[in-house]
Amino acid sequence: MADSRTLPQPPAGGTPTVLVIGGGASGNAVTILLRRAGIAVDLIEAKPDWNATTGSGITLQGNALRVLRELGVWEQVKASGYAFGSLGVTAPDGTVLFVAEDIQTGGEDLPATLGMQRPQLQQILIDTVRASGADVRLGTTAETLEQDADGVSVRFSDGSESRYDLVIGADGLSSATRAAIGITDKPEPTGMAIWRIAAPRPESVTRTDLAYGGPAYIAGYCPTSENTIYAYVVEACRDRASIDPATYADEMCRLAQSYGGVWPEITEHITDPKKVNYTWFDHLLVEGSWHRGRVVLIGDAAHCCPPTLAQGAAMSLEDALVLAELLTSGRDWDDELFQTYHDRRIPRVRTVVAASMQIGQWQLDGVRDADMAGLVGRTMNLLKERP
Known about the structure:
alpha+beta, 6-stranded mixed beta sheet, 28% strand
C-alpha cells in the first residue's frame, strides 16, 4: 500500500472518481452529496434488494433530520414519518411517570424527533441516489483493494476491475473494507439484545414511551407513520443459536405480555415470527485514523453504539456530510484532509458512543440512582452544534 502522503491528487480539470462500498444510510448520503458536486461515483451494495425491505422502524432526531434536509429529502421524509417532540417514561403497568420535552438538536425549524419505517427511509435514499446519476451495482462486493502511486485498483465479485481516486467504505458493522485496509478493531457485544416488530399504531400513541423494569430492561415503542409503530423489548443477550427463529413471535410476546398501557394491543399483532427481528447490541469505535491512503471509512464501519440514545443513523449521516464537505472544498485529497475528517468527527462520535454505552451499562448493573436525564441532556445539547 502506498504512503498516503505521496498519492497524487484528483486530476486537475478532470472528474474525480469515487467508489462507495455499501448502500446504507451513510453510503447513500455521501453518494448523493458527491454527485451533486459533479464527482463521478460508483456505488456497490452486497444485498441484491439494496436492503429496501429490511427493518421495522427507525428513530431520527433533529441532527439526523438536518442532514436529510441537506440531502434534499426532508419533505419526503416528513410526509412518510411521524414527528413528535416529547418522550414518556412509564411504569411496567403503563402508568405514565413523567413526560420530558425532547431537545431540538437539528434547530428550531425541525422536529425534535421523527419516527419512520426503515424501508421507507431506505427507499427515499435509493430513489435519490438513482436520480443523482451514480452508477449502482447490486449484489456486488469489492474482492481486493490495491493502492499505488496513481490511485486504487478494485477487483469486484463479478470479475470486473476499475480504478478510483478514492474508495469510501460504508459497508457497516462487519466491514470487509475496514479489515482489508488493516484496521483490526472489531465490534463487541454490549450484553444486551433487542426484539423488534412493526405493528399498527394505537390511536393513543403519539410519541415514544419507554417502560423500565419488568421482565425486560426496556419495553418501548415509537410511532413511524399515521398508521404504524415499531415496538421493541430489550433483554440480556442470549445465545442466538439456542433460539429457534420459528419461536421469535412467542419469545417477544412472552416478554411483552407483562407490560400494560397499549402493550396488550401491540402484543395482539406479534404473531408472525418472520416479522420479528432479534439483534444483539454491539459497540465499536475506531480511535485511530479512519483512513489508509485513499480508502476511508464512514458510518458503522468506523463506529456504532447501542440505540439507547437513538443516534446511530444520525452519526452515520453526519459522517457523510462532513466527508463530502471536505472532499468538495477544493482542498487536496491527501492525508491532511482525511485526518481533518477524523479529527472533526471523533470527539462527537466518542461522546455519543460513551453515553449510549453508559446508559446500557447502568441498566445491566441495576443502578437505580443513575443520572440518566442529566447524561442525555448534556449529550443532546452538544449535538445541537453543527458537526
